[in-house]
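Possible regression after last week's pipeline update?

I re-ran a chain I had predicted before the update to compare outputs. Posting the input and the new output here so someone can diff against the archived version. Not blocking, just want to make sure nothing changed silently.
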Amino acid sequence: MLAANQTYKHAFQYTQAQVQAFAEVTGDHNPVHLDAIYAATTAFKKPIMHGFLSGSVFSKVFGTLFPGEGTIYLRQTMEFLRPMYVDVMYEAVFTVKEIDTEKHRAIVETVVYDTATQKPCLRGEAEVMNQREI
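New output (post-update):
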């Protein structure tokens, strides 16, 4: 069962091959994600990950780890604060803000940190439902 202020942390990183696969699935072939020569001419200086690939860690965690199986994603806001790069270790931090036990729903703060700098790269808020865990 979830509890208010409960926190869950999940370390992760993505590879350039995963960025390429995401581009194939979504059709987003923006060269800032895929072309190192092009990306070198931008403010980022190297390819950045797609924002929604970065945020997809939230779906993985909610659906399989916390609260886990049976979780239905109802809503997610995301604010992209800093670019995220392949082969960099990140940590997604989930903090339960509100629980509605009658509706089996929770509001969860979602933040991704660069583990080397401890700076947030992505933040938002999710609403999830789980008949068994909330």
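Follow-up from reviewer: compared with the archived run. The chain has a mean pLDDT of 97. Marking as no regression found.
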